[in-house]
Design goal:
Helix content: 25-40%
Distance between the termini: 69 Å
Strand order of the largest sheet: 5-4-3-2-1-8-7-6
Order of helices and strands: HEEEEEHEEE
Number of helices: 2
CATH architecture: Beta Barrel
CATH topology: Lipocalin
Shape: globular
CATH class: Mainly Beta
Strand content: 25-35%
Structural class: alpha+beta
Largest sheet: 8 strands, antiparallel
Amino acid sequence: MKLQTVGLMILVVLLALVGAGCGAMAFEQEGANMNETTQGGELAGSSWTLTAFGDGTAVAEQPSTLSFDAEGTRVGGKGGVNRYNGAVTISGQAISFGPAASTRMAGPPDLMAQEDTFFRALSDVAAYQIDGDQLTLADADGNALLIFART
C-alpha cells in the first residue's frame, strides 16, 4: 500500500512540474510574439501596391506589390513578373530590406524593367512614412524611392 502511495505522489509531482513547464513555455512564446509584433510596428501584417517611383517613373499595368508578415520581419510580393520574399528590419521609422529570393521568369520588357528598378530601389531604402493609406519608402537622405497604396 505504501509503495502505491509513494508512486502516486511521484506521478502527481511529475505532472505538476510538466504542467508548470508548459505554462512557462507558452508565456515565453507569447512574450516573444509580442516583441516581434512591436518590432514590425504599423507595417506588420500590411499589404501595399506600388503606385509610383520616387523619380516619377510610371508603373506598368501589373504593379509591384509589398506585403509584410504578421511579425513585421519578412516581406514578400510580386516585383512585376516574379514573386519574391526576404527579410526586413524595422526600428522606429528606419527600415532595411535583406537580400530577396525570387523566381526567375522572363516577361515583357516593360515589366522586367519595372521589376529591376523596384528591386534596386528596395535595396536603397532606409526609412518609411505612412500617411493615411499611402506608404513612402525613402533613402537615407529622405528622397522618396517607392510610393505605395494600401491594399
